[in-house]
Design a protein that fits this description.
- 71% of the residues lie in helices and 0% in strands.
- By secondary structure, the protein is an all-alpha fold.
- The N terminus is likely disordered.
Length: 305
């Protein structure tokens, strides 16, 4: 009779160890997100990136945005972009795609986004030791090389791009691949929770983002926004005053946990504690150059807690 009991204790201990490892992986994924997301985001908010897209023939912020993010997929039509970008109004996407491919090829857009982001990072990180930037780029690239591509369309498309040799470019490309991989997993978690892109945007505006910042940046009309608010009240995600309910906050926490769990794989390939030390000053400089109020849900530095 002792053998089954011993096996049960062993399985219990192994289960606890497995849960601890899973939680550590989730924490690592969230921590790293707070550090690489500001590096990626320079492509949206710096003059160098805007100028680079304009030089490629993509005048206006949104042409550069849609062409730059969608370019790894090739000259696709609007439908795949609506699906993968998720939270944008389809009409807003249709106005940009596929028109952008008449102005710049995907290859042009890829070159413009990398050159613009690299120039921005070169300016922002001019005071950072070159060897630290190179090490951060190498470590992030190692993590990106170990992501799971299955079911992550944007992450997989970015991971298939050539790895740049120049450290600033390699740093940005790795950060971009990892954030798109995480974003794909987040979309999957939101869909599994039964929400669509419009619903999660409207709910987030009531929870931790500004409607004034995010509604025009996602293209939803007032009528669509108000109808979605009523829908979220019916679903129990908002109360009648438009505030998030306790049940919705708990559900959103679960969505974030799933997102972290799906993004945990790449961080098993690197020393996360060391990468945190190397990457933190770089991320802080990039974060300081970005607008405090923005429509992309940029994490605060303490978001990992």
């Amino acid at each position: 009779m002792a053998l089954p009991r011993c096996r049960g204790v062993t399985q219990f201990i192994a289960g606890r160890r497995g849960r601890r490892a899973m939680l550590r992986g989730m924490n690592d994924a969230r921590l790293m997100w707070t550090l690489y997301e500001p590096i990626h985001a320079v492509t949206y908010f710096t003059p160098e990136s805007l100028a680079s897209f304009q030089a490629a023939g993509l005048r206006g912020f949104w042409r550069g945005y849609f062409a730059g993010r969608a370019a790894p997929l090739g000259p696709v039509g609007a439908a795949p972009v609506v699906a993968s970008f998720f939270s944008f109004a389809p009409g807003m996407v249709v106005r940009a795609v596929p028109d952008v491919w008449q102005r710049a090829t995907p290859e042009d857009a890829l070159r413009a986004r990398l050159e613009g982001a690299t120039a921005a990072l070169a300016r922002l990180l001019a005071d950072q030791p070159a060897e630290v930037v190179a090490e951060a780029a190498d470590l992030l690239a190692t993590a990106a090389a170990h992501l799971e591509p299955g079911g992550r369309v944007l992450g997989a498309a970015n991971s298939a791009l050539p790895v740049p040799e120049e450290p600033m470019a390699r740093l940005w490309q790795a950060a971009t691949t990892l954030r798109e991989h995480r974003g794909d997993g987040h979309v999957a978690a939101v869909v599994a929770a039964g929400l669509n892109g419009r619903e999660i945007v409207v709910w987030r505006s009531a929870f931790d983002m500004s409607r004034e910042a995010i509604q025009p940046a996602r293209g939803w009309t007032d009528e669509e926004w108000d109808a979605t608010t009523r829908r979220l009240i019916d679903l129990g995600w908002l109360d009648t005053d438009g505030r998030p309910t306790d049940a919705a906050i708990a559900a959103h926490r679960e969505i974030e946990d799933v997102t972290d769990r799906l993004a945990a794989g790449p961080w098993q390939a690197v020393d996360v504690d060391h990468l945190r030390t190397v990457l933190t000053p770089i991320a802080q400089v990039c974060r300081a150059a970005l607008p405090a109020i923005n429509p992309i849900g940029l994490p605060e530095p303490n978001a990992a807690s």
